[in-house]
């Protein structure tokens, strides 16, 4: 099912916060991750799609049907929140069967479908267990099975993995992706974990102050962030204020960087983005942008080493597998991105 938000504005009564003029289209079978700082409007977006809040203007369209005024239940969406909110007095299968019960599905059919849904999330044999006897990851799977059991038209996930430890989170990430593909179900997945967003999503929406400031594939978002704040939010970043010097050069506080042809006018203020993994250690033939400095921070993290090289009053943050002492770094022109200036 496709999900569309057309110029949707919703402001919490008595406040100035909410979401403003959202235009968003989620394709059938697509997984859209929504990221952004706390308070940027991610949960509000989800509540509007689900029908827990009604926009003051704009339309919400599911599979071509305007559902803006429809109550939650009639939208047929599976929702999983941060707290799984399982019923403690019910067994796993009873929890999963609950949405079928309120939809008046007959008892034997309810049981059959709940058992089947539990098997699909890897909980075969756990049907009679109560939530408190299950691990966090297993409870999360029950919540997922409950959201999927009535064959919803789309899945809305609000930080469903945030309560899990890192290892389990990775495992559940893959599990959600697998189920989402298997069911071919359009999914909106809110997360504060940018790695989770990049690794799971077909596309990522970045929210800021109630607006979507970029909507792009994970790769595009990482390689070509629209703004300085997106660049800083997604992955590690060197962000330097600079001024265009020539058609293929910008000056930054520690020198001049040769770039690829950028088409910007001389004197224009820009923000320069270079990802730490694109800072090369040492010098190499044909690579300009060589800078010598002093290591002021050096962290060995196993597979990678992260370091800060102080150069002309600024710090170049790098990431490398090289273990030798570092005195000089080089930056290839094609690894330099120019973004609109912060000011
Ligand atoms: P996020 O999910 O990105 O953390 P939310 O969508 O929950 O952000 O909140 C967006 C903004 O709306 C925040 O400023 C938040 O404080 C405010 N907000 C959320 N819920 C309510 C509410 N029920 N009443 C008033 N303001 C709210």
Explain how this protein is built:
- With 343 residues, this protein is α+β, with helices and mostly antiparallel strands.
- It folds into 2 domains: 3-228, Rossmann fold; 236-340, no CATH class.
- Helix content is 24%, strand content 33%.
- The chain contains 8 helices and 21 strands.
- Helix 2 (92-102) packs parallel to helix 4 and helix 3 crosses helix 4 (136-148).
- It starts with a strand and ends with a strand.
- The mean pLDDT is 94.
- Bound molecules: adenosine-5'-diphosphate.
- Adenosine-5'-diphosphate binds at residues 12, 15, 17-18, 36, 38-44.
- Adenosine-5'-diphosphate (ADP) binds at residues 12, 15, 17-18, 36, 38-44.
Query: What does the overall shape look like?
Result: elongated
Strand order of the largest sheet: 6-7-8-3-9-10
- Count of helical regions: 8
List the domain count as a whole number.
2
| Class based on secondary structure composition and strand pairing | alpha+beta
Number of strands: 21
Summarize the helix and strand pattern as letters.
EEEHEEEHHHEHEHEEHHEEEEEEEEEEE
How far from one another are the termini? 41 Å
What gyration radius follows from the Cα positions, in whole Å?
A: 24 Å
Low-pLDDT stretches: none
Q: What is the CATH C-level name of the largest domain? A: Alpha Beta
Oligomer: single chain
Name of the CATH homologous superfamily of the largest domain? P-loop containing nucleotide triphosphate hydrolases
Give the second-level CATH assignment, the architecture of the largest domain. 3-Layer(aba) Sandwich
CATH domain fold name of the largest domain: Rossmann fold
Q: Which molecules other than protein and nucleic acid are bound?
A: adenosine-5'-diphosphate
Q: Please bin the fraction of helical residues.
A: 10-25%
The biggest beta sheet, please?
6 strands, mixed
Determine the mean pLDDT: 94
Determine the strand fraction and express it as a percent band. Answer: 25-35%
């Amino acid at each position: 099912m496709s999900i569309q938000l057309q110029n949707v504005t919703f402001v919490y009564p008595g406040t100035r916060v909410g979401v403003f003029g959202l235009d968003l289209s989620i394709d059938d079978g697509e997984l859209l991750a929504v990221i952004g700082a706390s308070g940027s409007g991610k949960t509000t977006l989800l509540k509007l799609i689900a029908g827990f809040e009604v926009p003051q203007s704009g339309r919400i369209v599911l599979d071509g049907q305007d559902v803006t005024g429809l109550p939650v239940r009639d939208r047929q969406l599976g929702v999983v929140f941060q707290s799984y909110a399982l019923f403690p007095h019910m067994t796993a299968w009873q929890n999963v069967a609950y949405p079928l019960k309120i939809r008046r599905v007959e008892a034997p059919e309810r049981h059959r479908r709940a058992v089947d849904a539990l098997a699909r999330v890897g909980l075969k044999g756990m049907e009679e267990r109560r939530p408190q006897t299950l691990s966090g990851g297993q409870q999360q799977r029950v919540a997922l099975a409950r959201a999927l059991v009535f064959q919803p038209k789309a899945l809305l996930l609000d930080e469903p993995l945030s309560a899990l430890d890192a290892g389990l989170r990775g495992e559940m990430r893959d599990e959600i992706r697998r189920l989402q593909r298997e069911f071919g179900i359009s999914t909106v997945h809110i997360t504060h974990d940018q790695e989770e967003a990049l690794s799971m999503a077909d596309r990522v929406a970045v929210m800021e102050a109630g607006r979507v400031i970029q909507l792009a594939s994970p790769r595009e978002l990482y390689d070509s962030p629209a703004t300085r704040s997106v660049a800083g939010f997604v992955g590690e970043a060197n962000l330097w204020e600079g001024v265009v010097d020539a058609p293929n050069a910008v000056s930054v506080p520690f020198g001049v960087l040769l770039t690829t042809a950028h088409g910007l006018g001389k004197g224009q203020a820009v923000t320069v983005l270079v990802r730490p993994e694109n800072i090369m250690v040492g010098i190499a033939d044909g690579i300009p942008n060589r800078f010598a400095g002093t290591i002021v921070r050096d962290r060995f993290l196993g597979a990678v080493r992260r370091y800060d090289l102080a150069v002309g009053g600024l710090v170049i943050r790098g990431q490398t597998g090289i273990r030798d002492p570092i005195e000089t770094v080089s930056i290839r022109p094609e690894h330099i991105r120019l973004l609109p200036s912060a000011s």
